[in-house]
Each structure stands twice: as structure tokens, then as C-alpha cells.
Amino acid sequence: MRLYSLSVLYKGDPKVHLLKAAYDVSTFNFFQRSSVQEFMTFTSQLIVERSELGSRASVKEQEYLCHVYVRNDGLAGVVVADNEYPQRVCFTLLDKVLDEFSRQVSKMDWLSGSPATIGYAALDGYLSKYQVRPHQH
Fold first, then answer.
1. Is the distance from CB of 121 to CB of 128 less than 8 angstroms?
2. Which domains does the chain have, with CATH numbers?
3. What average pLDDT is seen over the chain?
């Protein structure tokens, strides 16, 4: 069970933009990592674009399962996980992240922010905390 990416996006008018993201591509071959990361970024944006405000969904994309939650205020979160990762846990994580993000980052920044300008450092921590490590025998 693995989480590969966790991102916060804003479903604005006319387009969706990425505000902050964390990736764990350590399980991929070194030469694949940047294309895997680009795929996850692109897929996350596409799924948010296709989702209604106030909706939650789990979408299968290649060998991944993408869990998306778009709040009524346009703030959205996407977790890209493998097929075994429990859906309920993904939505708990998204609830927590979006709630915290909306308290720490001003709404003004949602409209024009980018991963470089938004100061919200917790994503990497959540990604590793929610990562299910295989037990060592």
C-alpha cells in the first residue's frame, strides 16, 4: 500500500491550478521519476477540472487510484495511491489537509498562488505519516 502524491489545488474560473503538492516517487526507477511526477500533477488537475464542487470521487487512472475531494469553496485535494490503499483513509487525509490549508493560507492566495509562492509546508509530513510501510521481518 502506497501513497504517491498529495496535492492541493484550486478549482477556479476558468481553470484549475496547483497550489501545493508533495510526491513520493522513491519506488520508481530514477529515470522515470520526473515523468511519473508530471503524470500525477497533470492527472490531479484533470480530475479536479472534471469534478463538481462539493464532490468526492475515486478515479482509476492506469495502475493508480486517484481520490479527489472538491470543497464548495473551490479548494480541492487529490491523493494518488495504489489500488490497495484504503479509500476511507485517503478521504480522512484530504479532509484534514484542506481544513488546515484553508486556515493557514489566505483565500486571496488560492486565486493566484503557485507551489513556489504558497507557504504551507505540511504536505510532505502528511505524505510520509500516512505512508504505510511494509513490516520488516
1. no
2. 3-130 (3.30.450.50)
3. 94
Q: Read off the pLDDT of residues 33-64 as tens digits, 9 standing for 90 and up.
A: 999 999 999 999 999 999 999 999 999 998 99
Partners of 6 in the beta sheet? 22, 79
Place of cell 474560473: 13
Distance from C-alpha of 112 to C-alpha of 19, rounded to nearest angstrom: 9
Q: 67 near 85, Cβ under 8 Å?
A: no
What is residue 14's predicted lDDT score, i.e. its pLDDT? Answer: 80
Which H or E run contains 88? helix 87-104
Instruction: Using alpha carbons, select from 16, 22, 58 the residue that is nearest to residue 40.
Output: 22
Residue 8 and residue 97 in contact, taking contact as beta carbons nearer than 8 Å = yes
Note the pLDDT tens digit of each residue in 18-41: 999 999 999 999 999 999 999 999
Kindly give the residue spans of alpha helices, DSSP state H, lying in 7-86.
Answer: 33-50
